[in-house]
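Just scan this pair:

***
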Amino acid sequence: MATSLYLKDLGWRILGANVRVPGGEIDIIAREAKTGVLVFVEVKTKSGDSRPGFKPEDLYRWKKVKTTRRSCQWYAGKFPKLLFRLGWRIDLVTVQVHQSPLTDYKKDCTISHYKNAV
């Protein structure tokens, strides 16, 4: 939820969330406002300080990278008209929740956005 709000605040258009594909799931599919590029967004969230020094980025391991890439390639091949000849990319958005429940994502969590993460 926080990630979708964050992306919408950037002007992005959310095309889908939790999209099931053969062999996996794509967290968010969006269109970037400035470029029009189709972006597949992998979201990793960590709540609280249960493991100090451990960041949400640490949850994105090589096996998940491989699954994400395969899922996005399948989706892009299945729906080529969505690419508009602009291509696509995979971004990683991490959310560190400081206060739960989230009432205002800008205050209650820290969001980091890594473009072309894969």
The two ends are 22 Å apart (CA to CA).
